[in-house]
Amino acid sequence: MFDTISSQASKLINLTNKIKNNQNSKTKLITITSGKGGVGKSTFTANIAFLLSRRGFKVAVIDADIGLANMQVLFNIRPRFTLFDYIDGIKTLDEVIIDTEYENISLIAGKSGFQYSNHSNTFVFSRIVQDVLALNQFDIVLVDTGAGLNDYVKEFLTISDNVLAVTTTDPSALTDVYSLMKMLSFDKNKLMLCFNHTKSYQIGESIANSLVNLAKKNRLNNDFMVEYIGNVSTSANISTTGRLRKLFTKEFIYDDSTKQLQLIIDFLLKNIH
Q: Which of 10, 117, 139, 248 could make an S-S bridge to 57, C-beta 3.0–4.6 Å?
């Protein structure tokens, strides 16, 4: 059993090194996660992708929320093929990269109701990230992970130096994001943190500082940084556009939530590597 675990760890380490050492790729990788479900992470990711595309960046979104596949709903697409068709060797990578109706945004779709057991402990999910980076076709790849901290989410987190957590002020969401902090502190230097459905920047900043103080009190890795990068206010426009399968940042460009996301993007573009 130890040999099996060791072999799996070696595979993931090798994969991580390949991604980090891919010097020929211009593509930046950002993994967006939450810990708790229902905080608006996928909506956040899709709208971040749209605003980046409007700034001229070519963006690929990988729906790594295994089993739910929310991205195809948000981009109003019925994909013929998904990332699993590539993983299973049925289709090529080019065939599973789908053009959306939005210029400069491509989607690699997930699959609703997919069962984990077919690909247990093989690291095939994060391998697709390596292959997309190796294409050198995109400026930014956004990976939208599932909720929780299962092995598949951990896999996507491990291979990315740019991890952005989206949370809310809900106590259970904060508990989950603190668990995420503890896990990442073992082998990461930092976590970017954004508060969704939060009225003001200052509220998010205050809670972020409390989380950092709690981490210090519990003696997490002293070199681990939590960078609070902004908030997105609650807006009726977000839920309305979601039901219509539209992106609120396109339909309501002057909404406070859109402006707040623009500020978050300003930070990301200056700090990701």
A: 139
Q: Are the beta carbons of 41 and 176 closer than 8 angstroms?
A: no
When pLDDT is cut at 50, 70 and 90, the band that residue 247 belongs to is very high
Rounded Cα–Cα distance for residues 165 and 29 (Å): 14
Mean pLDDT of 9-14: 48
In whole angstroms, give the CA distance from residue 69 to residue 85. 14
In angstroms, what CA-CA distances link 35 with 17, 65, 183, 206? 25, 12, 11, 20
Q: How confident is the model at residue 111 (pLDDT cuts 50, 70, 90)?
A: confident
Query: What CATH number corresponds to the domain at position 177?
Result: 3.40.50.300
Predicted confidence band of residue 242 (pLDDT cuts 50, 70, 90): confident
Measured CA distances, 23 to 15, 27, 137, 209 (Å): 14, 10, 14, 35
Q: What angle do CA 206, 154, 47 make, to 5 degrees?
A: 60
By the 8 A CB rule, do 33 and 145 touch?
yes
* Residue numbers of the domain that contains 93: 2-271
Strand partners, 196: 232
Q: What is the pLDDT of residue 66?
A: 75
pLDDT tens digit sequence for 135-155: 999 999 999 998 878 888 888
Number of domains in the chain: 1
Q: Which residues of 83-116 are buried (b: 16+ CB within 10 A; e: fewer)?
A: bbbbbeeebeeeebbbebebebbbbbbbbeebee
